[in-house]
Amino acid sequence: MKMLLATLEFPPDNGGVARYLGIVAKENADIIVMSPSSEHELEFGRGWFTWTPLLRRIPQLLRQTKADTLLISHVLPMGYPAIVARLLGYRVVILCHGLDILQPRNNWWKRLLVGCVLRVATRVIANSEATALTVRSYGIPEKKISVVHPPLSWDAATVRGSVQAVAQLPAMAEDKRVILFVNRFVARKGGDVAIAAMKIVKKYFPNVLLVCIGDGPERNAWQAAAHDVGVSENVSFLGRCTDEVVRQWLRAASVVIYPSKDIPGDPEGYGMGAADAGLFAKPVIASRIGGLPEAVIDNETGVLVAPNDAEALARAIIALCEDTERAKALGNAGKARADRWTHEAFRSAFFSAVEKS
Questions:
Q1: The pairing of beta strand 69-72 with beta strand 3-6
Q2: Using CA atoms, how far apart are residues 178 and 86, in angstroms rounded to an integer?
Q3: CA 96 from centroid of its chain's CA atoms
Q4: Residues with Cβ < 8 Å from 70, sequence gap 6 or more?
Q5: CA 46 to chain centre
Q6: Of 26, 181, 303, 327, which has the fewest CB atoms closer than 10 Å, so is most exposed?
Q7: Which pTM value belongs to this model?
Q8: How far is residue 219's CA from residue 187's CA, in Å, rounded to a whole number?
Q9: DSSP 3-state assignment of 257?
């Protein structure tokens, strides 16, 4: 089976979808990648119908490369050439991540188009059961849907092979109880909830340090919030960091948090960063929302709390900081789970799903 992967996000982009697809295509000569940064660059036009060049370019590349399967990561705008490819007899596999299929439901035309694309596809791969539920809401039969959880950001072998000496832990972490938040700085990710929780946690653990890694439009607002609630000295914004720096902070953390908010029309499809904590045997506190309960198993690899609730988040942080044995047990269970979900295991599950198309 030879495949053409058409996507708007791919390495060197650094988001979750880009990492996911980079791992899918890694060292696989049977996958040709068409992305803004690849050899086969995506071509867009101007005006209202910027996607029209794709109607010609994608079928053309399918013929040139002798691919028999089209993998589409962004149902819009890639859905248009996907329909053409299916009419030409190619297999079409749609990868769904959450927001990409939920947001179009707010627009009748986009909802109609997404439903059409999903129906003509030969296979739909959802990143979680929560996302699969949204796929089914378009009338897609269960037999056409496969659920494959995203891979971890790094393979266990990569983590074991990187420098892990105590001397590599960040100096800022010395004598601190580190609570780690690694995410995009957008409203849905709940950085403001984490900062509000610090006001409560600080009363019990004055040496608490919330380390925020990432960037985005909410950064200034969150920094202002930390000042307003009096926790500026307990919150550090590091901006975007290299993978090695992120791994150093994961080693230094006492708890990893993923406090996503419940915002209508803006779902949390899975939560790769929450699952990554398992590689470092760290317990996770996450919101009980979207696909997060599949990334974090409640009372097994972490603790789930109500979304938008700073007090509940604070109570969970305090409980794990006080009960270090429980925190260690949750972290170890997360590590056992992460060690099983290797990149090889992920690719095996992914391509088994593709072969069902």
A1: parallel
A2: 51
A3: 12
A4: 3, 4, 6, 58, 62, 81, 82, 85, 90, 91, 92, 93
A5: 30
A6: 26
A7: 0.92
A8: 10
A9: strand
